[in-house]
From TrEMBL:
This is VOC family protein. Residues 7-124, 140-255 form the VOC domain. SUPFAM superfamilies: Glyoxalase/Bleomycin resistance protein/Dihydroxybiphenyl dioxygenase. PANTHER family: GB|AAF24581.1, GLYOXALASE-RELATED.
C-alpha cells in the first residue's frame, strides 16, 4: 500500500468567478499561481512558495445547470480509484463524478459520503505517488475538519476507507465532542456533529498563515468576510472561518494572534 494512502494531497476551488477568486486568495494567502495548460479548460495551479498544493477553476454553465456548487474540495490519495469508488457506493455514498483520467496527472473521482459531504479520491500517474505538503507548510493546508450529520457514523465510514486512526476526543460543551483523527499517529484533522443552523455536512480546510489578525485584515480588505472568531484552540493556535467574495467557505490557522 502506498505510504500516502488516506492522506489529503490536493485542494481545489470551483468558483463562479475565477479571476476574482485568484485575486482574493493571492492577496490573502500569497499563493503563487500559474495556468496548468490543460487543453479543455482553464485551470490555475496554486503553489505555496514553489510547492503546488491545489488548483482553481471556474464552473461552466453546464456544470452549474447540472447542480455543481462552488466551494473547496479535498483530494484523498488511494491505491485504486475505481475500487474505492465501488466501496464508497457500497457504504452508502454517492458518485458525483465518475472515475476519469487527467492526462499526464492521474485518475480521480468526486464523491459524497453517506451524509452528503463531498470529497475526491485520487491516484497519481506512474507509480501513483503524490506526496502531501507538510502540515506546517506556510500557505499549505494545516488541518481538515468535517462538520458531519452524525460524527460517530462519519468517523466509522472514513476510518474504514482510509485507515484513519482515533485521536483525542475533545469535549466542546454544548457543541458536542470534537473527534480528532490521525494518520500514522499524527493528528491531521477533526470531526464533529454539525450545528442545526448549518445547511448541510461539509469539509472545511484550514490554510496556514503567519498571524491571524493580520490575515483577517487581508480577508476584509480583499472583500471576504469573517464568519466568527478568531478563536484560540488547544495547543495555542488561532483559527478563523471565513467566506471569500463568492461565499465559498475556508478557514485560516496561525500560531500567533
Amino acid at each position: 500500500m502506498s505510504a500516502f494512502h488516506g492522506q489529503f494531497v490536493w485542494y481545489e476551488l470551483a468558483t463562479l468567478d475565477a479571476p476574482a477568486a485568484s485575486a482574493f486568495y493571492r492577496a490573502v494567502i500569497g499563493w503563487n499561481m500559474k495556468d496548468a495548460g490543460l487543453p479543455d479548460r482553464e485551470y490555475t495551479i496554486l503553489s505555496a512558495g514553489e510547492r503546488p498544493i491545489g488548483g482553481l477553476m471556474a464552473l461552466s454553465q453546464a456544470e452549474c445547470k447540472a447542480g455543481a456548487q462552488p466551494g473547496w474540495i479535498g483530494y484523498v490519495a488511494v491505491e485504486d480509484v475505481d475500487a474505492m469508488v465501488a466501496r464508497i457506493a457500497d457504504a452508502g455514498g454517492a458518485i458525483v463524478r465518475p472515475a476519469s483520467n487527467i492526462p499526464g496527472v492521474g485518475r480521480f473521482a468526486i464523491v459524497d459520503d453517506p451524509q452528503g459531504a463531498v470529497f475526491a479520491v485520487f491516484r497519481g500517474g506512474g507509480d501513483g505517488t503524490m506526496a502531501p505538503a507538510a502540515p506546517d507548510t506556510p500557505g499549505g493546508v494545516g488541518w481538515h475538519e468535517l462538520l458531519a450529520q452524525d460524527r460517530k457514523s462519519a468517523f466509522a465510514f472514513y476510518a474504514d476507507l482510509f485507515g484513519w486512526g482515533v485521536g483525542e476526543a475533545v469535549d466542546m460543551g454544548d457543541m458536542g465532542i470534537y473527534q480528532i483523527f490521525t494518520i500514522g499517529g499524527v493528528p491531521i484533522g477533526g470531526m464533529m456533529t454539525r450545528a442545526a443552523t448549518m445547511p448541510a455536512p461539509f469539509w472545511l480546510y484550514y490554510v496556514n498563515v503567519d498571524r491571524i489578525d493580520a490575515a483577517i485584515g487581508r480577508v476584509r480588505e480583499a472583500g471576504g468576510r469573517v464568519v466568527n472568531g478568531p478563536h484560540q484552540v488547544p495547543g495555542g493556535s488561532w483559527i478563523v472561518p471565513c467566506l471569500d467574495p463568492q461565499d465559498c467557505m475556508f478557514a485560516l490557522v496561525a500560531p500567533t494572534r
